[in-house]
């Protein structure tokens, strides 16, 4: 996939490895949000991303990001989609024309149920894309960090 004029190397578990943590949110060596899964327990943001993805995204992109007849599998495209491009596509939408077919990703920048949880959705899909998170609801999750509670209240206006 060409993104911003350069071919990106496929994401993998090593690149996605958490090297730092701030208020319960994990980051990779490049400062991108990422997941932390230990002994079957996912971090809060991966769990939240699972919930938010299945609330708003799975209708088109299928359960667990595996795709559908309507929209492509995100667990494939996420392997070569950088964080900034992900944010841009979800917020602004995108239209693809090819092989006589038009695919439209609507903009979700005005939908607080998506916009306020973009990092969470990204983290969940990244974990799925690199094979760190299996299909289905994570069996165990970390507690919701206070920072997540504060951000959610601020973003959702509550």
Evaluate the radius of gyration: 15 Å
Quote the average pLDDT.
Answer: 91
Overall geometric form: globular
Number of β-strand runs: 10
**Widest sheet: strand order?**
3-4-5
The level of helicity is 25-40%
Compute the separation of the termini in Å: 39 Å
What is the CATH topology assignment? Cytochrome Bc1 Complex, Chain D, domain 2
Class from helix and strand fractions: alpha+beta
Number of domains: 1
H/E series = EEEEEEEHHHHEEHHEH
How many individual helices? 7
Largest sheet: 3 strands, antiparallel
Spell out the CATH superfamily. Cytochrome c-like domain
Top-tier CATH class: Mainly Alpha
CATH architecture: Orthogonal Bundle
Low-confidence stretches: 1-7
- Which percent range describes the beta-strand content? 15-25%
Q: Can you tell me about this structure?
A:
Pfam families: Cytochrome_CBB3. It comes from Ferirhizobium litorale. This is C-type cytochrome, methanol metabolism-related. Keywords: Heme, Iron, Metal-binding. GO terms for molecular function: electron transfer activity; heme binding; metal ion binding. With 158 residues, the protein is of the alpha+beta class. The chain has a single domain (15-138), classed as Orthogonal Bundle (Cytochrome Bc1 Complex, Chain D, domain 2), CATH 1.10.760.10. It is 37% helix and 18% strand. It contains 7 helices and 10 strands. The strands form 4 sheets. It has a 3-stranded antiparallel sheet. A 3-stranded mixed sheet has the order 6-7-10. The chain has a two-stranded antiparallel sheet with strand order 1-2. A hairpin with a 2-residue loop joins strand 8 and strand 9. The longest helix has 13 residues, at 44-56. It is globular, with a radius of gyration of 15 Å. The termini are far apart. Mean pLDDT is 91; it is low at 1-7.
